[in-house]
Amino acid sequence: xKPKVTMIAWNQNDNYVVTAVNNHxxxxxxxxxxxxxxDLVGHADEVFVLETHPFDSxxxxxxxxxxxxxxxxxxxxxxxxxxxxxxxxxxxxxVFDCKFSPDGQHFACTDSHGHLLIFGFGCSRPYEKIPxxxxxxxxxxxxxxxSNNYVLDEQTQQxxxxxxxxxxxxxxxxPHPTKHQRLVPGRENCADEHLIPQLGYVATSDGEVVEQxxxxxxxxxxxxxxxxxxxxxxxxxxxxxxxxxxxADQESASSGPQNGEGTPRRG
Length: 267
Hints:
The chain has 267 residues and is an alpha+beta fold. Helix content is 15%, strand content 33%. The chain folds into two domains: 5-120, Methylamine Dehydrogenase, Chain H, CATH 2.130.10; 135-213, no CATH class.
């Protein structure tokens, strides 16, 4: 197999360069002379994460598809710490990304199973208050393209980035409390009544009645004759109001002065 470099990173003071090779080795080089200083052995699969410590020039973190996370002392070529991302009943989870905190006391990783892994010092109680499962209620809703090839939300016929902020729900679509809804950008200062999505009961094709966040219904449900989404109606109304305001602004701007006396005065 011909060796190929999959990732490269400089250390904090740029004295060393670390490269990840597809033979699962990490190589530490002198950045000025190009001399190979160390081979770091430990990974069993390709490495696509190399992160330098924010202020300690000796420390480099690596993580890969083998689920291993290593903290290295690259000046000595030794392991300082090792973690393995084992997921019960599913084997290991490949680590896709990692970042240090600005103070260098913590680092966070994301894996192939959608987990956020947080490592560091101190108590974990603040993190235990956050729900294990957080999804937007609009996740996995189908998209379409219009005649101009622009992407639109299939239900509301609006561009996704113009839609109101979504609600946070668990994997089954149940909404989280209002304190968690405020974590969504755009909902920080909303009134409490605007942070509680309406729950509805809908009948499936086999007659089973299920509870869900209104607004998660799909076009398939509409075709089955289920009740329309109240939340989507609210979104459409908000978008309509925004379009009307935009149209009024454009109309007033295009009308301009009629008497030729220059720029119209503000009211």
